[in-house]
Amino acid sequence: MPPQQNNQPLLDNSRHDDAQEETAYDSSEKVVVVGIDEHEGGVDRWAFSWKKLWLFSGPGFLMSIAFLDPGNLESDLQSGAVAGYSLLWLLMWATAMGLLVQLLSARLGVATGRHLAELCREEYPTWARIVLWLMTEVALIGSDIQEVIGSAIAIRILSNGLVPLWAGVVITALDCFIFLFLENYGVRKLEAFFAVLIGIMAVSFAWMFVEAKPDGVDVLVGTLVPKLSSRTIQKAVGVVGCIIMPHNVFLHSALVQSRQVDHRKRGHVQEALNYYSIESTFALIVSFVINVFVTTVFAKGFYGTEIANSIGLVNAGQYLQEKYGGGIFPILYIWGIGLLAAGQSSTITGTYAGQFIMGGFLNLRLKKWIRALITRSFAIIPTMIVALIFDTSEESLDVLNEWLNILQSVQIPFALIPLLCLVSKEQIMGTFKIGPVLKIISWLVAALVIVINGYLLLDFFSSKVNGAVFITIVCALTAAYVAFILYLVSRAVTFLPWLSLMGSRTVATTEN
Length: 512
What we know:
With 512 residues, the protein is an all-alpha fold. It has 21 helices and two strands.
């Protein structure tokens, strides 16, 4: 492949043909945003515009929904009940780390005009690509099971227990058709729908916050003053571990392509990156505030009580009702409405992510309704089985949730390492590759997240794994898992710098 020129942020277009390969959005679907003006001689100038920020707003809020899914809400309520306000600072910094990862994902999508799954298909050999795809699909299924069950729990709450868990799963499965219906009306209508759901979450959990009346000083101190103890270490690890979702890294790199950007002009790409950075930051600030609402409500009501360790997503509404009573509107139903909005929004974005992941890795050009049904079926069928098996036991649902958290934790390196590998590569990113300082910070954040999730795995399996045969199987799988991670890291550490060096030398020779 010819070396990437410094003023050209794109992949070499000869490598792919949009008429023959899967793309995130057809040109007719993209939102048109007029680019910036440029001085003669190629010197860019950028002036902030509220109108353009409005036109670029949307992808970041869809991405932020993964920070508000039922799995995150359960982590919030458990950390609040067990650790009080003491882990709010960690929630803030974990959100900041998540923001960094998502900005890198957006950078990759905008600069290349392609999303992470598509680039992985080209950059890795077939066997590695298939493994990455399978691992990402497994993570997506695990996340979707939690989200669908969260919606089903909310439906059971709002129906006063008349709708069983399995029926709630069936109802939630129909959100696929809502998604297809809205998608036919354009990207902006779909984004507006998700904005409404986020607004419902914000109002519901803010209402609960006002009802609970947590101490403002305690909330501020918990947010700004780092504090950790041996008693709260496990919840602290859980707070960080659930923030970065593997499928969300893939999703954001595709969502940013919903805007028409002239990739031939560096200034237009930089403008898009600026607006997406602003929008994503604001979206995650909103998600952080909502997570704080949930954490502080349960910290105020249950921290230091005998039932603190037994609160989970299944029984949280009932405990809230017993603690805070009815009020103007029963808090049980307020919680149910917020949980339903979280579950529905996250399951639909999961379907969205599944389309991009499957289409990108396998280069499938299928009709959208067919891809949506396929990706929806991947999650709904195992979720139905889970709902039928675990419907009668709150304790078994909590155990299931632990296994699903571990399942997703295992997959995080398979999204982070390829992302960092690609955004560091000049042949992919051109002048928009990340610099040395950002590269070091990004790899440190990735290493921290991977180590934290490794701790979760070690702690979980040390308490759950028994029997020689089971231990042998787990050890074998662990060895294969570690070997594949080392393979991915080796490509980033050794292969990419040599390519970058060779590309620089070739460019220098050509210029001379």
